[in-house]
Design goal:
The chain has 267 residues and is of the alpha/beta class. Helix content is 34%, strand content 28%.
Length: 267
């Protein structure tokens, strides 16, 4: 069982169209080993030593990641650097790497829509940001809870649907009432202005920085910060489901079981 590489890439680009990538992003091929046919595809959040070992053990010859291996261009593949070491290991094992990053955050049915579905949001649509040239659609989504709830209840809901290992951080009064919700998975504290502009009561995201949180508090926007990993590990299950449906039985699609949150918590 194998799929031609050009057919696989065509399907990947249907699921996560490259034209939806942000200008600063680096999606698509990270490593292309030039194989004509691919036998096993392993989908993961990002490249780690554990993921590489898993790919070798499960005989995957193609990796799909959400986070780019090469976010920035490098001049030298240096085994003394983490990224260089990853590249050398992957090339030695003949494993190609392809990334679907902001393209899959933005596309219909991608990370943000998946989270909106988990939260059972209604009237889900694209988040818009005002610019001098007019409103611009951005990666996130906005929608409404079916019934108003407190910020604490919303945080409990996020913790539950994302199976978080600890309660998410919040900005705002736990008793505040929230209905209109903005979502931007990953690191999206810069979506605060868009959430406010769209009259949202709440922004659900991850990696909110101190000054962003302070700004939101001052401007009356509630935030639930469920972490970068917490809001994006859902990529793996979501992408696997879509890719399996797309390629049918032409190639084996594997879901990584070694992705982990890099943060540990002392209780």
């Amino acid at each position: 069982m194998a799929i031609r590489i050009d057919e696989l890439i065509d399907q990947l680009r249907v699921i996560a169209p490259r034209e939806l990538e942000e200008d600063w992003d680096n999606g698509g091929f990270q490593i292309n080993m030039g194989k004509e046919k691919i036998e096993r595809v392993l989908v993961c959040l990002e490249i780690t030593n554990a993921v590489i070992a898993e790919a070798v053990k499960r005989r995957a010859d193609f990796l799909v990641t959400h986070h780019p291996l090469l976010m920035e261009k490098i001049d030298v593949v240096d085994a003394g650097t983490l990224t260089g070491n990853y590249i050398i290991q992957l090339v030695r094992q003949g494993i190609s790497v392809y990334t679907a990053h902001t393209s899959f955050d933005s596309v219909f049915g991608g990370n943000n829509d998946y989270l909106a579905d988990l939260l059972n949001l209604k009237k889900v649509r694209r988040l818009k940001l005002w610019t001098p040239l007019g409103d611009k659609e951005i990666i996130g989504r906005m929608g409404s809870f079916e019934t108003p709830m407190s910020l604490k209840a919303a945080a409990d809901l996020v913790e539950s649907v994302l199976n978080l290992t600890k309660p998410p951080k919040i900005v705002g009064n736990p008793d505040a009432t929230v209905v209109e919700v903005a979502i931007s998975t990953g690191s999206a504290g810069d979506s605060i202005d868009a959430a406010i502009r769209n009259c949202c009561d709440l922004l659900i995201t991850g990696d909110v920085r101190h000054h962003q949180a302070q700004k939101a508090r001052e401007m009356g926007l509630n935030i639930i910060d469920a972490g970068h990993y917490g809001t994006e590990y859902i990529f793996v299950k979501n992408f696997v489901e879509k890719l399996r449906k797309s390629v049918q039985n032409q190639v084996e699609i594997l879901e990584s079981n070694v992705i982990v949150d890099p943060f540990d918590f002392m209780l």
